[in-house]
Amino acid sequence: MHDDSTRSLPFPALRRRGFLAATGLGALTLTGCGGGSGSDSDDGAGDGSPKKGGRLRAAFAGGGASETLDPHLANLFADVARAKALFDKLADYGADLSAQPRLAAKWESNKTLDRWRVTLREATFHDGSPVTAQDVLYSYRRIADPKQAFRAKASLEPIDLDASRATGERVIEFVLKRPTAEFPNVLAAFGAYIVPENATGFDKEPVGSGPFRFVSFAPGRSAVFRRYDDYWEGAPHLDEIEFVVANEESARVNALLGGQVEYAHELNPTTARAHEDQGRIEIVRLRGSAMQAFCMKTDRPPFDDERVRQAFFLIADRRELVDGALSGAGEVGNDLFGKGYEYYADGLPQREQDLGKARALLKQAGAEGLKVTLDTSAVAAGFTEAAGIFRDQAKKAGVTVEVRMGSKDSYWSDILDNGSLCCYRSGAMPIEAHISQRLLTDSTTNATKWRHKDFDALYQQAQSTRDKTERAAVYERMQRRLYGEGGFLIWGFADWIIGTARGVKGVDAEAPANTLDWARFDTVWLA
């Protein structure tokens, strides 16, 4: 791993001792350089005109020493922010969650929706080689490798990759296993990044086609990327972006207040309220952007009995959870993902707490006096608060909930297969993508272990249905089943809160987390 980030730019060196004094914590370490405000470029000024130059330092919660720059393994928000800086997908989700062309210039289907032709735009990788159809096929075949557990695998399942082929240097004919009306969503799937043919060794010197190129990477600490001048959509304004890991929200906030970073991802509502309109930092709220839930594993006791799951749905006082865990910065959920999104089943009655009925269901299930462990962590804003609130709510129904604190570094990998009940959250994605990545038998991030072949068949039916009204009816049928017996107790949708230095401009205030313009640093500049 090389690091020439301190040799060529006119930034003053950051004094680590001063940083630690400012934060009071040693969890966040920065490489090499100070803030971008030291850039001597002056080809823009004020708030309106983008200014070239500088390094922006962005603080995210990370995944510890196991972090990787392999874009197909991206899972955490820090992973995705780094991946989208280095790589591109064929499409990505706009703020309305519709698929927007990226490396794909256009796509078109045949009349039966089982063949789609995708034409690539002219773009190059960081080594100057063109992005070709063969690169796309290699990337998708790598993701679909049955020996691997890449997150986008379930989303790419409709594609027959053996039959799909390049029909030109920049044209791919995708042959599908069945008609798929919303195939562009497949191209935009979480983790479906395009890498050069035969690419390996992503943590040493990854080559992508994104707006920034690799400089250095220290897992669990930092990553530095430099502007790629030949980026197909135009070179970024910044000279460099540095991603720094700070798992404690307090470390991110104090680093921002102390001028040690210019962008702090995921602040809690109390912090935001304390600093909003105070003149020191800017607060950006992405309204209702993050699903908040408890995840019940349906393949093991006690949640392999749907009556226990139904009882837990009725134990939750969602308004108390939103007010207490989110300080009111969000809205109540109804045990379904994607409130307000296309296909959301908004006709189902809003669940309210009913402790008497919950007790009756537990008695029917032989689960009176139930004791269960709820895994949580300070890895995400509101998690520990939500766990404490739900513990107290469950006690009123005769259920003893033991709250177990997990590691911030490994929480997400730990809870995927272990335990029976945990705190969970998600950024934005289409309901179709949520189902394909989390609720199918072969989904690699199926944290509720919801595995039902008939449910899989309904998903395939929805994909294959050309008429949008009929397709919506299938999705509603699926959601009704999840509402009645699923494993996600979705109690709220939180505002996603970001803090920036006052001189940071170009941060999109409308893009939900996980979408194209969220954590998009090629359009940001330092005023």
Structure at a glance:
The chain is an alpha+beta fold and 527 residues long. It has a domain at 288-495: Roll (Dipeptide-binding Protein, domain 3), CATH 3.10.105. It is 27% helix and 22% strand.
Secondary structure layout:
Layout: H1 16-23, E1 55-60, H2 77-86, E2 88-89, E3 91-93, E4 99-101, E5 104-109, E6 115-120, H3 133-143, H4 153-156, E7 165-168, E8 171-175, H5 183-187, E9 193-194, E10 212-218, E11 222-227, E12 240-245, H6 249-257, E13 263-265, H7 269-275, E14 281-296, H8 306-315, H9 318-325, E15 330-332, H10 355-364, E16 371-376, H11 383-395, E17 400-405, H12 411-417, E18 421-426, H13 431-438, H14 453-464, H15 468-485, E19 488-501, E20 504-505, E21 525-526
Parallel strand pairs: 1-12, 1-13, 16-17, 16-18
Antiparallel strand pairs: 2-9, 3-4, 5-6, 6-8, 7-8, 10-11, 11-12, 13-19, 14-18, 14-19, 15-19, 20-21
Helix pairs in contact: 8-10, 9-11, 14-15
Give the tags.
527 residues; Dipeptide-binding Protein, domain 3; 11-stranded mixed sheet; 15 helices
Describe the structure.
The protein has 527 residues and is of the alpha+beta class. The chain has a domain at 288-495: Dipeptide-binding Protein, domain 3 (Roll). Helices cover 27% and strands 22% of the residues. Strands 1, 10, 11, 12, 13, 14, 15, 16, 17, 18 and 19 form an eleven-stranded mixed sheet that branches. A four-stranded antiparallel sheet has the order 5-6-8-7, with helices on one face. α9 packs antiparallel against α11. The protein is globular, with a radius of gyration of 23 Å.
